[in-house]
Specification:
321 residues, alpha+beta, three-stranded antiparallel sheet, 7 helices, 15% strand
Length: 321
């Protein structure tokens, strides 16, 4: 799809599905190996500590992950935080895990993703820090107390709704990409075409995060199945959710966000960085260790200044009653 088509479809529908942007062998295999190594390290550690009954050696990644995660959850371990590359919004300590690796940084700054982002944002591109990995086991196997947007169904929302008002005029673009095939059965995204042309809707706190009350949705959702290598571009005001994973496997995806340089990120407690620039190439962050250091400093700051504000919503709005 050429740039004019991407821009026009994005303007009309608020989302664009692009197939085969990334090569599964060349571009996705490094991130898969990285997470396989992380899972192996955690499984062996938790088994050695007696927290899980087996390290589940020899199983394929998807089966091993589900087995380890579900046992770890029953043992009270916040397992998803060990795999995420963002901090939680509260309760941060020196031991709060965060996964910063060269492979994750290379995905965030992949030239193919930046090329697509540049079509909508221009050549001065910042990586917005509101990003996550989502490794979702079959939902009926996840303990109710562990269900949230990173581990189970994500409720209807707009990405602008999880940013602070400082970023209401920032052109934040979400690039959502699956590592495993995203299907209706395992919980692919569902979007409401054209909903980005409306305003930011009141979000109400609830299970899985802040969410738009169903009666305020702009229309019915359209499921967007995707195969590995494809990417989904989402406008910051597009209403979307994920379906419930009712399969027997995991659904693994990344949601990454980008914006033009010089605009507020909507999450000032977390570090953004310049990933592409023609005006100031010397300021582009190219070493993953520098990126990891930024997050270590953010963790220290959150420990010293407890729980900064992360969203604008409360349960007191009339529509939340």
């Amino acid at each position: 799809m050429n740039r004019m088509d991407v821009v026009s479809q994005f303007a009309e529908y608020g989302y664009v599905l692009l197939e085969d942007v990334l090569d599964p062998e060349e571009d996705l295999a490094p991130i898969i190996r990285d997470y396989e190594e992380l899972l192996d390290t955690l499984a062996e550690r938790w088994f050695g500590q007696g927290l899980i009954s087996s390290a589940y050696r020899g199983l394929p990644f998807e089966q091993r992950f589900a087995a380890v995660a579900l046992e770890a959850g029953r043992a009270g371990i916040n397992w998803i935080q060990h795999f995420d590359f963002s901090l939680p919004q509260g309760g941060v300590t020196a031991d709060t895990p965060i996964h910063h690796s060269e492979a994750v940084f290379n995905l965030l700054t992949h030239p193919k993703l930046l090329d697509v982002a540049e079509q909508l944002l221009g050549p001065e591109i910042v990586v917005n820090p509101i990003h996550h990995v989502r490794l979702k086991p079959p939902e009926d196997q996840v303990p109710v107390g562990m269900r949230g947007g990173l581990t189970a169904r994500t409720p209807w929302h707009q990405d602008q709704g999880v940013a602070l008002p400082e970023a209401d005029n920032s052109d934040i673009l979400t690039i959502w990409l699956p590592i495993t095939a995203a299907t209706v059965e395992n919980g692919c995204l569902s979007v409401i075409p054209g909903s980005h042309r409306g305003a930011l809707i009141t979000h109400c706190p609830g299970v899985g995060g802040v969410q738009i009350p169903e009666r305020l949705l702009a229309g019915p959702g359209v499921p967007v199945p995707m195969r590995p290598g494809s990417i989904l571009l989402l406008h910051r005001l597009t209403q979307h959710a994920s379906l419930t994973n009712v399969s027997q496997g995991i659904r693994w995806s990344f949601d990454l966000r980008y914006q033009p340089a010089g605009q507020p990120t909507g999450r000032p407690a977390f570090p953004a960085f310049l990933a592409r620039s023609r005006a100031h190439p010397e300021q582009v962050v190219t070493d993953w260790r520098d990126w990891a250091t930024m997050w270590e400093e953010a963790r220290q700051a959150m420990m010293q200044h407890r729980d900064p504000v992360f969203n604008r919503w409360t349960a007191t709005a009339p529509v939340c009653a």
